[in-house]
Amino acid sequence: MKVKNFIKDFVNNNKHIWIMSYWVIHCTWYLILQEITMARDPYPIVCDLDRAIPFCEWFILPYCAWFVDIVAVSLYLFFKNREGFVRLYVYLFTGMFVCMLICTVIPMYFDRTGMEMYPRDNFLTDIVKLLQGFDEPTTVMPSMHVYVAIGLCVATLRDKVLGSLKFVKFCAVILCIGICLSIVFTKQHSVLDGIAAVALSVPVYFLAYGLKYKKLLKLVEKPCVIEV
Which end of the chain has fewer beta carbons closer than 10 Å to its terminal beta carbon, N or C? Predict the structure, then answer.
């Protein structure tokens, strides 16, 4: 009973947690597209620069750090900066919805034909192979990896506490750059996917941080007090 009351009080005092429910829709949608895209005669996304960029397994580190970055920034803002959390997820989910809609209407995939893959046999290369074994290069443009990385970096820099710490700001920017580069060096995306993500991030940034969202921000008015 105490656990049930704890959960109830937590949700009542942290109503902005309901925003996270869209993750269920997004992940379900993503998995469906992963299953059906290659059977829909998808359009190949590739450019000459993609073939010129060498494969580098070291970039799998920032590529995977993307997942840690999402959890870390989200948890911090959830408890320490509620408005920042809400605005971050307005940015994230708006852009991710647009990315998924584009990939649903226009089936596409990253064409690795003619690219040198796995020139070295080591542990990091094995991780790349494992990733590519279950993550088809579909739903690629715009790159959600790049788009989300930009949003997480911006949210970190805009936070009054984190944004005042030079080391944190430096790490946030370096991680964002590393993630953006990782998509092409691990041959998960085309350069075109990254460019499209940057282009999408600009208008959605102003949408997320320029509007007032009075009704949505009512979710963050109550103090985070939990009665057990």
Answer: N
Pairing label, strands 108-110, 43-45:
parallel
Neighbouring C-alpha atoms within 13 Å toward the C-beta of 110: 27
For 125, other C-beta atoms within 10 Å of its C-beta total 19
Spatial neighbors of 26 by CB under 8 A, at least 6 apart, are 93, 96, 97, 100
- Name the 3-class secondary structure at 31: helix
Which tops the pLDDT comparison, 75 or 18?
Answer: 75
The full DSSP string for 115-159 is -----S-SHHHHHHHHHHHHS-SBS-SS-HHHHHHHHHHHHHHHS
Nearest one of 80, 218, 219 to 155, comparing CA atoms: 80
User: Helix axis angle, 60-80 relative to 123-134, nearest 10°?
Assistant: 70
R_g of the chain computed on alpha carbons: 19
| pLDDT tens-digit series, residues 12-49 | 666 777 888 899 999 999 999 988 888 888 899 999 89
**Tokens 């049930």 found at:** 4
Q: Which of 228, 65, 221, 51 is nearest to 148 (CA)?
A: 65
Say what the pTM is.
0.88
Residue 123 corresponds to which tokens in the numbers above?
A: 């542990």
Q: List, for residues 185-215, the tens digit of each pLDDT value.
A: 999 999 999 999 999 999 999 988 887 666 5
* Cβ–Cβ under 8 Å, residues 188 and 195: no
Q: Please state the domain extents for the chain.
A: 2-220
CB of 71 closer than 8 Å to CB of 193: no
